[in-house]
Amino acid sequence: MWLRRDRSTFDELDGGAEPYAQDEQPAEAEAPETGPDTEPGVVPEGATGPRPARAPGERRRAERRRRALRVAKRRRLTLWCTLLVLASVVTAAVQVIPWWAVAPSVVLLGSYLAILRVSVQIDAEQRRAAAQARAERARRARRRAAELEARRPVAEIIDLAAHRDEIFDQYAETPRRAVGD
């Protein structure tokens, strides 16, 4: 696990990322382009159509997995930079290398820690923006539901107690009437 090779591309980080929410797909991503020489229903090679819709729970699990992979990669790189500094300090202490040869590894660790600090701030901003977007979508959904409830027709309520002065008996004999009445 410690010696696992990191991928040179960030496929595992953004492999399932959807740049737009399901209801906010751009118009050009709705359907792949088909030309006159392509059959209907067949997607040409290289065409990127819309991704299949994911369930909200699946999307959250995928996002947690991507975040865990990012954090693990950052921890491994921090560990290796720290080990490099430690090794250069030890070799300088036993006078295998001059004391000033420790500087490159210290600069490397310092610059990596600075980059980590910035990336943590960016991650926090993205999480905050995502939470605000979710809250805005929920607020819009509540407002839409309230508008639909307000538009729903109100039924007329009839007071049946006022019309109960005469009781209807279906088995009572009706008065006989003459033909043609």
Automatic annotation (TrEMBL):
Does Transmembrane helix count among this protein's keywords? yes
Q: Which residues cross the membrane?
A: 77-94, 100-120
Any idea what this protein is called? Answer: DUF3040 domain-containing protein
Coiled-coil ranges from the UniProt annotation: 121-151
Annotated stretches, region: Disordered: 1-65
User: Which keywords annotate this record?
Assistant: Coiled coil, Membrane, Transmembrane, Transmembrane helix
Point to the regions of Low complexity compositional bias.
32-55
Q: Where is the composition biased (Basic and acidic residues)?
A: 1-10
| Domain of life of the native organism | Bacteria
